[in-house]
Amino acid sequence: MNLLLLTPEELIRDSEYSVRDRQRVDHILNILKKREGESVRAGILNESLGSFRITAVREREIKGSYRRILFATPRAPKLVLFSALQRPPTVEKILQLAGTWGISEIGFFNSELSRKEYLTSPVWRAENLSTELRLGMEQGRNVFEPRMRLFFSRPQDGKKPVLTDDWKAELSSFPGKLFYLDRKGESLASLTEFENENTTRAFLLGPEPGWSRKEKEGFRKVGALPIRLSRSVLRSEQALAFLLSQQEEILERKGIRK
After folding, report:
1. Which class does domain 4-71 fall in?
2. Residue extents of the structural domains in the chain
3. Tens digit of pLDDT per residue, the chain (258 long)?
4. Does the fold of domain 79-253 match that of domain 4-71?
5. Which of 137, 163, 174, 230 makes an SS bond possible with 99, Cβ 3.0 to 4.6 Å?
6. Dihedral of the alpha carbons of 227, 138, 104, 251, in degrees to the nearest 10
7. What's the top EC group for this one (predicted)?
8. CA distance 231 to 227
């Protein structure tokens, strides 16, 4: 944890906060070895960066005061991720990576080759999605939580998840550049060499078996370009890590930094 991310739910009054999450309390006391009177790097969700001065320590609670140093700004240009259904552990890794890097929006959808049993996983519960995102955010010192969208209903007892194709309409009307991951595509650097540096980009991450031929045709019809991240076969979370690394290198080469 490289940043203590404070949320509205933890606000006591004015700039006073109470942290009761066991994992974070343990990390601050036993890993960072912080005590009363000492400070840790902190941030307010979707707002600012600053420091948190510890004023009281109990077994399962840390109280302190937050001092803002600067208002944070989201990454620009925006990066949007559309991901097919993945294995629940993979979803957790994707969310953490997204939170670390500062992806602006993530949407999960059912693709033709997705495994439908993943729809019933508890990973899709709002609190679980938020937990994984914020773990990544604290790792990457990012205070801006990605917007989450599920193109299916969350699992409920005795109810079958309802799927929606709204994500296809989202692609058709997307205001920026669209790319889908495909080992037969071109490199991201070559496809974006002459692109406007402020262009919003959306990337489509496929399921473990890959995209169907019909899906690829549909992507091309809405102007999406195939990109290759590696000649090796990558797991979904590895592909996302490669993508974010290459995207960051491209932005830095164009003089755009986080």
Report:
1. mainly beta
2. 4-71, 79-253
3. 999 999 999 999 999 999 999 999 999 999 999 999 999 999 999 999 999 999 999 989 999 999 999 999 998 889 999 999 999 999 999 999 999 999 999 999 999 999 999 999 999 999 999 999 999 999 999 999 999 999 999 877 778 889 999 999 999 999 999 999 999 999 988 887 656 667 899 999 999 999 999 999 999 999 999 999 998 999 999 999 999 999 998 888 877 765
4. no
5. 137
6. -50
7. transferase
8. 11
Residue with tokens 């959306």: 202
